[in-house]
Amino acid sequence: MIPYGKHHIDEEDIQAVVDVLRCGTLTQGPVIEVFEREIATYVGAKYAVAVSSGTAALHLAAIIAGVGPGKTLITSPITFVASANAGLYAGGEVAFADIDPTTVNMSPASLKLVLEKNPNTKAVVPVHFAGLPCDMPAIKKLSDDAGAVVIEDAAHALGASYPDGRRVGCCAHSLMTTFSFHPVKSIVTGEGGMITTNSEDVYRRLLRLRSHGINKLDDTFFISSQAFTQGVQNPWYYEMQDLGFHYRITDIQCALGISQMKKIDAFISRRRSLVKRYDNAFVDLNLIGLAQTSGRDFSSHHLYPVRINFAAADIPRSTFMNALRQRGVTTQVHYIPVTIQPFYQRLGCISKNYPKSNKYYEEALSLPLYVDLTNKQQDEIIALLLEFLG
Ligand SMILES: *Cc1c(COP(=O)(O)O)cnc(C)c1O
Question: Which domain holds residue 356?
Answer without folding.
Answer: 264-389
